[in-house]
């Protein structure tokens, strides 16, 4: 028996087609916004391009916000962020998907953000909520650009998905 489960893009499109909005497209303006970092302590290595932040760390870019106990950034030659690794109990992320769909929120022991691909990987007690639906598992990969979600359970556990009822399926009551 496989202990990990994959949620395919086709499944997500099927569910979204049923009125359960799960796919996300981050606001286009987020990528063009400046990145703001706050922390109690920061260190930077010119030689390696690695910057480490610790103590109440917050990173923001447009509507994207990541909070953690520690964040390590890897910079390219032009000093742009390639990757960010956040750890905490838990580390959190949030981003406005669209004005209509609102906020997507995630939390895990470790959050790995690839700024080049726009993929966030939540690892260890991972949870992602969006438009009333939630995904829980050991690892969740979430594409900020496309809205695709992949969840894996691991450790003999299973992925949990909770979907809100669609408004068209709600009932007003039962008459006696």
TrEMBL record:
Keyword match Mitochondrion:
no
- Please, which domain of life does this record's source organism belong to? Bacteria
Q: What is its main location?
A: periplasm
**Compartment(s) of residence:** Periplasm
What binding partners and quaternary form does the record give? Component of the lipopolysaccharide transport and assembly complex.
What role does it play? Involved in the assembly of lipopolysaccharide (LPS). Required for the translocation of LPS from the inner membrane to the outer membrane. May form a bridge between the inner membrane and the outer membrane, via interactions with LptC and LptD, thereby facilitating LPS transfer across the periplasm.
How is this protein named in the record?
A: Lipopolysaccharide export system protein LptA
Organism, by scientific name, is: Moraxella caprae
Read off the lineage from the record: Bacteria, Pseudomonadati, Pseudomonadota, Gammaproteobacteria, Moraxellales
Name of the gene encoding the protein in the UniProt record = lptA
């Amino acid at each position: 028996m496989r202990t990990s489960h994959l949620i395919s893009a086709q499944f997500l499109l099927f569910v979204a087609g049923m009125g359960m909005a799960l796919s996300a497209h981050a606001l286009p303006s987020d990528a063009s916004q400046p990145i703001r970092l706050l922390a109690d302590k920061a260190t930077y290595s010119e030689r390696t391009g690695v910057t480490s932040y610790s103590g109440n760390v917050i990173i923001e870019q447009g509507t994207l916000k990541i909070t953690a106990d520690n964040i390590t950034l890897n910079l390219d030659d032009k000093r742009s962020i390639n990757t960010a690794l956040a750890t905490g109990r838990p580390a959190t992320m949030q981003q406005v998907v669209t004005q209509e769909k609102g906020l997507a929120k995630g939390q895990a022991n470790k959050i790995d953000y690839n700024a080049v691909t726009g993929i966030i990987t939540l690892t260890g007690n991972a949870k992602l909520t969006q438009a009333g639906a939630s995904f829980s598992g050991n690892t969740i990969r979430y594409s900020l650009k496309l809205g695709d979600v992949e969840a894996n359970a691991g450790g003999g556990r299973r992925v949990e998905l909770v979907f809100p009822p669609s408004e068209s399926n709600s009932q007003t009551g039962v008459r006696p």
